[in-house]
Amino acid sequence: MTVQKSASLLEMDHISVAYDDGRRVLDDIHLTIEQGEFVSIIGKSGCGKSTLLNVIAGYIRPKHGKVLVQGHEVNKPGPDRGFVFQDLALFPWLSVLDNVSFGLRMAGVGKQERHERSREAIRMVGLAGSEHKSISDLSGGMKQRVAIARTLVTKPNILLMDEPFSALDEQTRESLQEELLRIQKETGMTVILVTHSIDEAIYLSDRVAVFDDQGRIHNLIQIGLGKPRIPEIRVSSYFNEYKKQLMKDLRYDFQEEYESQGSGI
Ligand SMILES: Nc1ncnc2c1ncn2[C@@H]1O[C@H](COP(=O)(O)OP(=O)(O)OP(=O)(O)O)[C@@H](O)[C@H]1O
Predict the structure, then answer these.
(1) Whose CA is nearest to atom 28 of ligand 1?
(2) SS3 letters across 179-217
(3) What residues form the membrane-spanning segments (predicted)?
(4) pLDDT in tens, 25-81
(5) How much distance in Å is there from the Cα of 48 to the middle of ligand 1?
């Protein structure tokens, strides 16, 4: 294993990815993330956001460049990086407790320890008391909490989340955002979130990386709203300034097209 000097927790070192058809999906992504940071990735559908999470997780090897975690090159998945998938991938026939403890069971962890650790993860996501409920009896928000608990149970240092709240109604979504910030504070984890929601990216993040259509980082925005975040910040003028900036960044290609036509209405 190559060990390199790196002050950062996570370094994406000039990553490029092309799938079998040869089309480049990520192009020279260079980004470093520090311990305890919350970074969101936002960009149009198909710009390579999920691919980047998969590279960090170790499921996809980049064509060029590398990912370093604390100076160690990533070449396979590991327990230091937990992944919360968009489609949850829960086992509907198992209870909450059995879903959360499934990974530990597969890893050969004994019953007492896996149940203790699973109950702790279930508590962390606010589902204490629901351990023996069946997945099919849960609401969408509760299922999402189970999916997060199942990842937290392995105590990852880096939590990778691919549009985890996209299927939820706004109120549930906002309450899960609060929970996520609380969990991050409690654990000190680093979170990398892929989202399509500008508001979600601003509210949760220390930095937001805006991707362009070519799989490059178009802009990297520091969100100086302070932490802990208070819900009222969502309606502040500071928040709106970031929103305007992100909307502009996400629309940059329309703007370029418009300007190149030299049109004025
Ligand atoms: N396994 C694969 N083989 C070939 N092409 C793929 C594969 N996975 C993804 N792609 C293509 O790579 C591009 C980037 O996909 P990716 O899922 O990373 O984008 P995304 O930004 O996460 O999109 P969305 O926001 O819609 O989830 C897309 O054009 C997609 O069709």
Answers:
(1) 46
(2) HHHHHHHHHCCEEEEECCCHHHHHHHCCEEEEECCCCCE
(3) none
(4) 999 999 999 999 999 999 999 999 999 999 999 999 999 999 999 999 999 999 899
(5) 6
pTM: 0.90
Give the tens place of pLDDT for each residue, 104-150: 888 889 999 999 999 999 998 889 999 999 998 899 889 999 999 99
Distance 147 CA to ligand 1 centre (A): 22
State whether the beta carbon of 45 lies less than 6 angstroms from ligand 1.
Answer: yes
Q: Is 190 in the pocket of ligand 1 (CB under 6 A)?
A: no
b/e code 160-195 from CB counts within 10 Å (16+ = b):
bbbbbbeebeeebbbbbbbbbbebbeebebbbbbbb
Residue whose CB lies within 8 A of the most ligand 1 atoms, among 50, 59, 85, 198, for a mutation test = 50
For residue 215 and ligand 1, the question of a CB distance below 6 A is answered with no
CB count in 10 Å sphere of residue 254: 9
Strand ranges for 19-91 from DSSP E: 24-33, 38-42, 64-69, 72-73, 81-84
